[in-house]
TrEMBL record:
It holds the Pfam family VWA. It comes from Candidatus Fimimorpha faecalis. Coiled coil: none annotated. Residues 39-217 form the VWFA domain. The lineage of its organism: Bacteria, Bacillati, Bacillota, Clostridia, Eubacteriales. SUPFAM superfamilies: vWA-like (SSF53300). It comes from the Bacteria. This is VWA domain-containing protein.
Amino acid sequence: MGITNSNKQIDVTQIDCDGTLKVTLALSAAPDIAANPTDIVLVLDRSGSMAGSPLANMKVGANTFIDIIDEATDGAQDGTIGSGSHIGIVSFANTATANTQLITSVETLKAAVDGLTAGGATNHADAFTKAIELFDPNSSNEKVIVIFTDGKTTAGPPAAPIATAAKDSGIVIYCIGLIGEDGIDVDTLNVWASPPTDSHVAITPDEEELEKLFADIAADISKPGATNIVIDEVIHSDFVITSVLPPSKGSAIMVDSNTIQWKISKLGVSGNEGATLEFFIKHIGQTSGMKQINESIAYSDEEKNEVTFPNPAVYVDCGIVIHPEPCPVPVEFTMEGCQDSITVDLGDTYLESLGRIVQVDVTVKNVCPGKRVALAVILTEVDSKGKEYQRGIKTITIPAHSYPNCQDVKVKCIKFVVPEDLTVSGGSSHSLCSDRKFNVRLIANNIDTDFRCCESVITM
């Protein structure tokens, strides 16, 4: 079945200009057997040399195999081989017996395995023959034989021709060998098994390893959804990665401030399985608007699953932002190898953001005691033709004084900023060398008065 779902989402829909948000990558996979039904015949050696602990360990391994396939086919050990797959049991000694047909009942399969007793010679040819007879030639299911033996053939004809014919018909053969008292013919197992033999033949001298060997082959048959997964995520240049949380599966590293690499060795081994990776990013751009999170995202695995992720977007609100000084244009130059020094003419550069500060003082005459005064100072610039351009206005409340008589009040340090890029003198905005002509107008009036007009109240 492979990758069953891939997703990428963010935890908010809007952030401020320098805001942070969480990104979640999610991936799920299921074993291939869940989408491609497989009929499997377990062929088990019950010859005399298997008596005692070898037979007991073989039963444990075979039952583990059944459990793994049970879970891989439908995502749970529910007692039923699912998704159209089946398992059958064949055992052999002097001759072979079909202990079950191809069925789905885990209970019946395990009962057949647990009921085996050891005794007799070893007839591999009849074992293969009985296994092949269980398959329905009209079925579209994949067909697999897993044969376990602890010794050499001691009864019946050679099994190689039968095994070869089975492989030619499309049956995949796995061999598990336990090196018993009489040894085992590894070359013969390699002939029986499907290629490549390093993934279809497993041999051990230790009967306690049988459970692991059966489990490994069950996992290989069910085929994990994906192996050796690598996801390279590059976020948009308007963002930087601030932190990466440990993923639920695999490992993740920050390659640089914009790149994450997430690796998962296996996903969807025994059933539908998910994995998530969470990381945080911060907006560092200077503009508002809808921003895509992804610059790019690349996925690869051994099974060559084709996977795409959505590209979520977040609205960034930077408010009103002005950038009066753009980044300087670089001057490029190259120093040759083994060169100790270099002289570079960088050309002209100019002073940036030039301007002037106009500071004025004014004396407001004859201000009566107990009366506040409103003062307006209006600044304009005058060009060569006498036309005026507004450059600023200041409105100031002058507090009332408590002297017994009217007084002159001096108001000092009223400041205006006049950037050089507003000059109308005809000079350069990159220089303070030109003259600029200004006009200042003043308006002043009392705020407080004892006048009352019919005690009326005027609201404005």
